[in-house]
Amino acid sequence: MSNKIKFGILGGGENSLIGGLHRIASSMFDQYKLVGGVFSSNHEDSIRFAKSIGLSSQRVYENIEDLIISELKLPENERMQVVSVLTPNFLHFHMAKLLIDSGFSVICEKPMTTTYEEAKILNRSLQKTKSIFAVTYTYTGYPMVRQMREMVISGALGKIQKVDAQYYQGWINPVIHDSEQRSSVWRLDPNQSGISCCVADIGTHALNMLEYVSGHQVKSVLSDLNFVYNDNKMDVDATILLRLNEGVKGVVCTSQIATGEENSFIVKIYGDKAGLKWEQENPNYLYFMEEGKPLQVLKPGHDYNSKLSLSSTKLPPGHPEGIFDAMGNIYNGVAKAIFKEDYNASEFPSMTDGLRGMSFIEKAVQSHHKGNIWVDLDE
User: Would the pTM of this model clear 0.90, i.e. be above it?
Assistant: First the structure.
């Protein structure tokens, strides 16, 4: 058998954007071989999809239980080593728990679970194994985001005093203003999505990014959520004030009703000497702002960047790298961990990041419903 990592996928079948993203990302460094999975809740659809991407139907299973039982019967050097969980939120916990307990490594879409309690149970299960667990906060894989992190660590900004993340989308507008649609889509159904839509979907990206690049942890939040209609139970817009360690203050503004916006994610970190700004829709530009000096624009692939940034860059300067490359860098980090190679812990988001994301969701919702008060995150 090939020495590539054999992996499977749960979900991500026909017409799935996220499925294509994961499959392409896994192939970038030539480290993985997709061998099977459960691509749809309908077994026939799953088999048809597998054939459409050139995959044998031999290891296309009816459900996760069938996958685990069948894979564990195979010789160790042939079975799946890692499984990517790309299903709707409410299935993440059950699937990830079964996989961890059966000895598989897991790459899980965010939010990691639908409740913080589930996340803590997953974490306890992981501690009993040697499995690797990654949560795909994809944007941490961009070369210039990693450069941003390294510049903060090196002291280029001085003492951090302000963090700011704005993540605006407009995709839910046609849904939210149609009473029939907003009562039928899974993202606005608490039974499938959890207690939050906007904060869980993109707010956790903002939290993770601010903590990743600043090196500081959010300690407490004060949130104001927007539901637009009284019969809608899920937030679609949020403004959240942050208090971080060492007296740092910040804000997260997220919206899925920002009319006309596509995927506008802007991250800003300000120190007492300089500031940094990065925009997801123009990911190759990192803006370095020093007091009293001209604006500097840093780009990937140049020798002035950090080792972490350069190791995440696949193309020469001037060639754009995007979301597939970012996800590919996360898959590559997981591969290094599975192969027990030396790797930087910041090369992929971990179970800890997933835990903090779930705590953030619950505390943000709690803050709003308690009258917009400060609520502490768990350590």
Answer: yes
Residue 80's pLDDT band, with cuts at 50, 70 and 90, is: very high
Give 228-255 as a DSSP string: SSTT--S-SEEEEEEEEGGG-EEEEEEE
C-alpha 264/C-alpha 132 separation (Å) is 31
Cβ proximity of 310 and 176 under 8 Å: no
What is the percentage of the chain residues whose pLDDT exceeds 90?
91
Non-local (6+) Cβ contacts of 299 within 8 A are: 144, 284, 285, 286, 317, 318
Nearest one of 369, 377, 328 to 23, comparing CA atoms: 328
131 & 170 share domain: no
Q: Which tokens hold the place of 187?
A: 């993202």
Work out the pLDDT band at 1, boundaries 50, 70, 90.
very low
CATH code of 87's domain: 3.40.50.720
DSSP annotation of 140: G
Same domain, 176 and 294: yes
Q: What is the pLDDT of residue 320?
A: 78
Cβ 109 vs Cβ 194: under 8 Å: no
Q: How many domains is the chain built from?
A: 2
Does residue 247 share a domain with residue 134? no
Question: Over 80: is that where the pLDDT of 123 sits?
Answer: yes
Q: Which residues contact 274 (CB under 8 A, 6 or more apart)?
A: 156, 157, 158, 288, 289, 290, 291
The answer on pLDDT for 161 being more than 50 is yes
Closest CA relative to residue 322, chosen from 9, 24, 112: 24
Its domain, for residue 361, covers 143-315+351-369
In a domain? residue 377: no
160-168, strands of its sheet edge to edge:
296-298, 286-290, 274-279, 264-271, 160-168, 249-255, 237-244, 218-226, 375-376
**SS3 of 64-117:** HHHHHHHHHCCCCCCCCCEEEEECCHHHHHHHHHHHHHCCCEEEECCCCCCCHH
DSSP letters, 173-201, are HHHHTSHHHHTTSGGG-HHHH-S-SHIII
Identify the CA nearest to 220 among candidates 240, 195, 194, 198: 240
Secondary structure letter of residue 28 according to DSSP: T
SS3 295: coil
